[in-house]
Each structure stands twice: as structure tokens, then as C-alpha cells.
Design goal:
120 residues, mainly beta, seven-stranded mixed beta sheet, 1 helix, 8% helix, 48% strand, globular
């Protein structure tokens, strides 16, 4: 069973930064980090979940949605067994529930989500 746990959400003012962290066990990390596309999604109530940033499982290139390009940075930490999302210059439209994801061949695994609220 793949378990992903997100940390780091909270309430900030526009222009500030937050770092989200998605952690798992060492055993799980060894599998999913090398065999799945790891990434972050977000969802606002009443809207579809959208992909924010991800790490290509083949090339390990980092990718970003246009609406966060230049502001967010995704990284993988093999010591902490985590996928982190550094979010800079947050805007009110970034307010959402943020979810960690492991997109594997057959199944996509999700964390429970962490709320990010940006006030003006």
C-alpha cells in the first residue's frame, strides 16, 4: 500500500512563500520515485483537480503548469523520502487544497491533501 502524507499547508498573505512536503516510507520511496511520475495537484471546491508540477519518471525533468511557472519549484529528496514544492510569490488564486500524487503504470495514488490559503 502506497501512503503519501502532505505537510506544510497554511495561510499566508499574497507575495509570501510556503513549502509543501510529501513524505512516504523509505521502502515506498524506493519504488515510486523510480517507477512513477511524482507530482503535485490542486483543487478548488467545485472545480476539477489540476496538475501543478511534476517530475518526469524517465528523464527526471521537472515540469510546471503555466500558471505557476517561474514561481514554484518541485524537488525530490532521497534522504527525507519526500517530494517538496517550494511556492514563491503566492497569489490569492493559488488558494486550494494541494495533493501529492504518484502516477504509476496501473494506479494513481493520492495523499490526503493540505490546504493552502492566500489572503490579499
Amino acid at each position: 500500500q502506497v501512503q503519501l502524507v502532505e505537510f506544510g499547508g497554511g495561510t499566508v498573505q499574497a507575495g509570501e512563500s510556503l513549502t509543501l512536503s510529501c513524505k512516504t516510507t523509505q521502502t515506498t520511496a524506493r519504488f515510486i520515485f523510480n517507477n512513477c511520475e511524482m507530482g503535485w495537484y490542486r483543487q478548488v471546491a467545485g472545480k476539477e483537480r489540476e496538475r501543478v508540477s511534476w517530475i518526469d519518471k524517465g528523464t527526471r525533468d521537472t515540469k510546471y503548469a503555466a500558471f505557476v511557472q517561474g514561481r514554484f519549484v518541485i524537488s525530490r529528496d532521497d534522504v527525507k523520502n519526500s517530494i517538496d514544492l517550494q511556492m514563491n510569490n503566492l497569489q490569492t488564486e493559488d488558494t486550494a487544497m494541494y495533493y501529492c500524487s504518484a502516477l504509476c503504470t496501473i494506479t494513481q495514488y493520492w495523499g490526503q491533501g493540505t490546504q493552502v490559503t492566500v489572503s490579499s
